[in-house]
Design goal:
InterPro entries: Hsp90_fam, Hsp90_N. With 541 residues, the chain is of the alpha+beta class. The chain has 17 helices and 19 strands. The structure holds adenosine-5'-diphosphate (ADP).
């Protein structure tokens, strides 16, 4: 129109548009995430402004509308948020506020492909992603508290126009005139899917219009942001099932909000049964990271691998809406959140371990995963040792290292363990004879990981942990009847055996640990334990 003013983009914006459109082509769907996030933010900001000026209050049933029109080949995103004045349109959609194109271009060039889409948000240039799918973008906006509306329009080349416009209410309409190859984004189903994937937990309702009817596209509950007392058990259970595709009840639900130096809300679940995606696959924790309700990634490794069975969401205020994978690894904020979240899960486990029967339900499902922590996580090793439970030669059910130590015989120096595939077989193993005769308890370890962690833990309560198949065992200090040894008779036999078995064994020794059996295989003190050797053979090493 004649009243339209023509403006050049800042020199940088032109280049930036080019970059965004070309570098991110394969991830085009994120334009919707960015525009919906902007719309939801504008609504949040208006709600905030209304706190001090009631005349700015949001209309009842405020929502973000996504309206595809196949005939006109347009997609419109409307929100009743703050809207933008003429000056704000110029400032926010005509220049780059936060950082220069150069820095953005450099980051784009350096970032792994998967990170590129996140850079858009990080550099505060999300709006321009609209030009990935649109050949022309029109923004009609009316600042809340004012009467006038403005139309901003651009084809994403060197310039944009600004003209007076009409809008009945405060808020913003963004009309995308879609490129011919972007018509998929006019399919209501496709739009629903994208919103569910990226924006399911924005609290303001988002609708996608199909045949004139508005269909809700997000659940919008952000359960974790509510206070504990506001969340019903049903809602919590529903969310848990939605998250993990699990249909049991969680063994534990952890819902809390951290405030102060670190601000986040968390809703975590420890499942009551092994999830469908068995914990054996990917070792990384899949706890979802949200920033201000917006889903960011499930690959932020919010918990260590040995707590990967924990499901849920952590939602923080302390990160920018879009963070790159590199930033996720480097930012101290996330490191602090990780520590806090891990600490919370550990306290829960310690607390629940006090009820043996209750804890057994957890242990029998996830015990082997927790043991990985003893093996690989020096920081949590000692803490985790207290959470371990074992089958034992002396008691029914499960027992802990502390309970074992309390039962140790006078003169017994070590915690004795025996590794194998099956506790029942282990209990009757000839390796056990000497221990049984003296009433010395042996812990029976049957998980694959048991071949690894004891070596790392070394000691518990200052008592060394020793495999009874490894090296010589000296039970002479333990009170009780020792098996009768006839060492003199063996003096001639041992060298003969050693010669005959020269290819099979490195040494033949007399022992006092056998009662009924004549011989037993033992591993050398310095080499791997017998069960480890079996595992290595199975793995073809
Ligand atoms: P970012 O949102 O990361 O700051 P964008 O390029 O997406 O970067 O948006 C730039 C700015 O434009 C926003 O910060 C906001 O001030 C303004 N803006 C964008 N969309 C809207 C909207 N729907 N309503 C009000 N303001 C908006």
């Amino acid at each position: 129109t004649e009243t339209a003013e023509r403006h050049e983009f800042g020199a940088e914006v032109g280049r930036l548009l080019d970059l965004v459109v070309h570098a991110l082509y394969s991830e085009r769907e994120i334009f919707l995430r960015e525009l919906v996030a902007n719309a939801a933010d504008a609504v949040d900001r208006r709600r905030f402004e209304a706190l001090t000026d009631a005349s700015l209050m949001l209309p009842a049933e405020a929502k973000v509308r996504v309206v595809p029109d196949k005939a006109a080949r347009t997609l419109t995103i409307s929100d009743p948020g703050t809207g933008m004045s003429k000056a704000e349109l110029t400032q926010h959609l005509g220049t780059i506020a936060r950082s220069g194109t150069l820095a953005f271009a450099k980051s784009l060039a350096d970032a792994p492909a998967a990170d590129k889409p996140n850079l858009i948000g990080q550099f505060g240039v999300g709006f321009y992603s609209a030009f990935m799918v649109a050949e022309r973008v029109e923004v009609t906006s009316r600042r809340v508290g004012t009467e006038e509306a403005w139309l901003w329009a651009s084809e994403g080349r060197g310039d944009y126009t600004l003209a007076p416009a009409e809008r009945a209410e405060a808020g913003t309409d963004i009309v995308l005139h879609m490129k011919a190859d972007a018509e998929e984004f006019l399919e209501p189903m496709r739009l629903q899917t994208i919103i569910r994937k990226w924006a399911d937990h924005i609290t303001i309702p988002i609708t996608v219009t199909q045949d004139g009817v508005e269909h809700p596209a997000n659940e919008g509950t952000a359960l974790w942001r509510k206070s504990k007392s506001e969340v019903t058990e049903e809602a919590s259970l529903e969310f848990y099932r939605h998250l993990g595709n699990i249909f049991d009840k969680p063994w534990s639900t952890l819902h809390w909000r951290a405030e102060g130096a670190l601000e986040f809300s968390a809703l975590l679940f420890i499942p009551g049964a092994k999830p469908f995606q068995a914990v054996e696959g990917d070792r990384e924790s899949k706890v979802r990271l949200h920033v201000r309700r917006m889903f960011i990634t499930e690959e932020a490794a919010l918990l260590p691998p040995w707590l990967r069975f924990v499901q849920g969401v952590v939602d923080t205020e302390d990160l920018p809406l879009n963070v790159s994978r590199e930033m996720l690894q480097a930012t101290p904020v996330l490191a602090r959140i990780r520590r806090a979240v891990t600490g919370k899960v550990m306290s829960e486990l310690k607390f629940r371990a006090k009820d043996a029967e209750d804890y057994t339900k957890f242990w029998s499902v996830f015990g082997p995963v927790l043991k990985e922590g003893v093996w690989e996580d020096a920081e949590h090793r000692q803490e985790l040792a207290g959470l371990l439970r074992f089958r034992s030669s002396a008691v029914e059910g499960w027992t802990s290292l502390a309970e074992y130590v309390a039962r140790m015989k006078p003169g017994q120096e070590a915690i004795h363990i025996l590794l194998g595939d099956n506790a029942a077989t282990l209990a009757t193993s000839p390796q056990m004879e000497g221990f049984r005769a003296k009433g010395v308890e042996v812990l029976l370890l049957t998980d694959q990981i048991d071949a690894f962690w004891p070596e790392q833990l070394e000691r518990f309560d200052d008592k060394p942990i020793r495999s009874i198949t490894q090296g010589s065992v000296d039970l002479s200090a333990v009170e009780g009847t020792a098996p009768e040894g006839e060492a003199a008779d063996l003096a001639r036999l041992l060298p003969l055996l050693k010669e005959a078995l020269a290819k099979e064994v490195s040494e033949v020794r007399a022992t006092d640990r056998l009662v009924d059996s004549a011989v037993v295989l033992a591993a050398t003190e310095s080499g791997p334990d017998l069960q480890m050797q079996r595992l290595m053979r199975r793995a073809g090493r």
